[in-house]
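// run 5 | inverse folding | seed 20
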């Protein structure tokens, strides 16, 4: 397995295989963002694509400054990796897919009634809560085939004998409401 962390400059990196096509405008936006005051590192992820001035599908590390425009409408959208109890050697994709097909892909209505704030109850995205969202969002099982740093791997609580669940989830419209709440009073 190759290491797909590619330095483009001292502060700009991408995480992508050689076969992944990335729009040149997105790369240009990574470099532009890296030149913002106090910006230390900029990393484009495999889903990197151009945004309105700043790239989408990237992580940014700045010191002493917060840039709301870099978060933008992606507030609450994110990726997470979980250790599962599924043994890699016993995993059967066909059987697993059959078991998953019986699951609902949204939250149960009774749970929503008990847990959803009343202000959100009539929002258009309410019916899709509990899903991962649309677009480039996904949930996938992954198997570790190489450990590059055993100490960090162990510190993360991961076990190569088990499958990992990687999820890129959506934020179901909450970011737009959040941005409007912050930007509208400021005339932005």
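// decoded
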């Amino acid at each position: 397995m190759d290491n797909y962390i590619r330095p483009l400059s001292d502060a700009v990196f991408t995480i992508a295989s050689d076969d992944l096509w990335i729009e040149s405008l997105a790369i240009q936006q990574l470099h532009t963002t890296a030149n913002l005051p106090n910006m230390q590192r900029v990393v484009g992820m495999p889903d990197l694509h151009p945004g309105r001035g700043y790239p989408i599908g990237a992580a940014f590390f700045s010191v002493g400054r917060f840039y709301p425009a870099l978060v933008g409408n992606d507030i609450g959208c994110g990726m997470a990796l979980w250790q599962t109890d599924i043994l890699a050697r016993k995993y059967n994709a066909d059987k697993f897919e059959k078991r998953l097909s019986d699951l609902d892909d949204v939250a149960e209505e009774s749970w929503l009634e008990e847990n959803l704030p009343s202000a959100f109850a009539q929002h258009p995205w309410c019916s899709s809560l509990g899903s991962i969202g649309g677009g480039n969002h996904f949930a996938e099982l992954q198997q570790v085939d190489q450990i590059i740093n055993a100490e960090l791997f162990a510190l993360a609580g991961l076990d190569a004998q088990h499958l990992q669940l990687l999820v890129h989830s959506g934020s179901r419209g909450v970011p737009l409401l959040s941005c409007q709440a912050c930007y509208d009073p400021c005339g932005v």
